[in-house]
Specification:
Length: 414
């Protein structure tokens, strides 16, 4: 054991000195603590410098530690590369290896310039073994150059809702240019994973690839065969583990983003700078701690199932509105729009949602169907979860001379 440990430290020091990315080769489950977590973890108890626990269904952050701090994120970048490839290319398309792709540092497949592969096979190499040359070959196949592919990555990140991410390389190797350094945040990385497993039209294909334990393929000519093994040890650590991606560079440290589904709840954990060699198991300890906290403390609710106070949105008086007769009080019913966002979400077991009604109690004619008269707001403490717009259901015209003459005539029929 000590010989293996010393050898790993020596290799790591040498490779990181050259800026080479490392994939973990030894048993990643050893020394991982398995304690039960029922209370909110103290931030000092986490190894990661930045961490987020997210509700994958709503996108709400349930726990964070420096969740919006921009940091290098190593090979966790490859989840974005993978989903862009799945959305933009046929899996059976042929990828020709360039000089640049063939020259990528370890960890790599060892492809040679001019070799041809099917895109599907390279995606398994990308996600299971974290091969850097696969990432570049895929990027060039899709966009022509890695620079043009980086634009696709940044555009997709903005579309997903990322607030502070900037991608330069398709494989996550540390890089800088005139616009900044390759980075994301734990919050943004969680959003990207959420998109990959929940929102994208290719989510099922993404899950199929990232959950595969082992995959074998050959180049198109059939001259070379390859075997890929999944390095996401979390898939065997907790029941319901869905997907994930590890990462490491000398600058980023150990990084991880993973997802787990338990009953009707889906959680995402993102960790950045979660230790450096020889602390490769820190990320598993942090991931388990945050996942167990989510499982033990949060329950799912549906805002649609929370009963509203009917008295709060009862028919509203319309002053000077035309009714069926003179002197009659005129009212109009209200229409409550459905919840548009965060219909289902997770809240702590001892929390309750509070509802605020901000509605006009008196209207003045004329009013038209669809007129806005207020909102119903769902609150969790000070956090606004959702709003429902309330509008007029029935048009009511204003009393005028002609209406008065008509109603007066009805009182004294000829």
């Amino acid at each position: 054991m000590w010989k293996k440990l010393l050898a790993w430290i020596l290799v790591t020091v040498i490779l990181t000195g050259y800026g080479i990315q490392i994939v973990e080769a030894f048993d990643q489950k050893e020394n991982v603590r398995m304690e039960e977590v029922t209370e909110k973890p103290d931030q000092n108890s986490l190894y990661a410098k930045a961490a987020v626990l997210m509700d994958a269904d709503s996108g709400r952050i349930l726990y964070e530690k420096n969740g919006h701090q921009a940091m290098a994120n190593a090979s966790t970048t490859k989840i974005l590369t993978c989903i862009i490839a799945l959305e933009n290319c046929d899996l059976d398309s042929e990828v020709t290896v360039s000089t640049l792709a063939a020259s990528q540092p370890k960890v790599h497949l060892g492809m040679r310039e001019g070799q041809k592969f099917y895109l599907k096979d390279l995606l398994y190499g990308l996600m299971l073994e974290s091969y850097n040359d696969c990432a570049v070959a895929i990027a060039e196949h899709i966009a022509g150059t890695t620079g043009d592919f980086a634009k696709l990555m940044n555009d997709k990140a903005e579309e997903i809702g990322c607030e502070d991410s900037y991608f330069i390389t398709p494989n996550g190797l540390d890089a800088k240019n005139e616009n900044g350094f390759h980075h994301t945040t734990a919050a943004d990385l969680s959003l990207i994973m959420r998109y990959c497993i929940k929102t994208s039209e290719m989510a099922e294909q993404f899950l199929t690839i990232t959950r595969e334990g082992q995959y074998q393929f050959s180049d198109i000519d059939g001259k070379n065969s390859y075997t890929c093994c999944n390095h996401n040890a979390f898939l065997q650590m907790m029941d319901g583990a869905l997907s994930g991606k590890t990462g490491f560079t000398g600058n980023a440290g150990y990084c991880y983003v993973g997802a787990l589904k338990r009953d009707d709840r889906t959680f995402i954990v993102a960790l950045l700078a979660c230790g450096w060699p020889n602390n490769k198991t820190y990320k598993w300890a942090d991931t388990k701690k945050l996942m167990q906290y989510g499982i033990s403390r949060f329950r799912k609710i549906s805002l649609d199932e929370i009963e509203l106070d009917a008295g709060e949105y009862a028919p509203v008086q319309v002053v000077d509105g035309q009714g069926t007769k003179i002197g009659e009080e005129v009212t109009t019913e209200l229409e409550v729009a459905p919840v548009k966002e965060n219909v289902e979400l997770l809240i702590e077991k001892d929390q309750e949602v509070h509802i605020e009604y901000q509605l006009s109690r008196k209207l003045y004619a004329p009013v038209t169907e669809g007129d806005f008269i207020g909102e119903i707001t769902y609150l969790l403490g000070d956090e606004v979860l959702a709003k429902r717009v309330v509008t007029v259901k029935n048009t009511v015209k204003r009393i005028d001379f002609c209406w008065c003459v008509k109603k007066t005539a009805e009182l004294f029929p000829m």
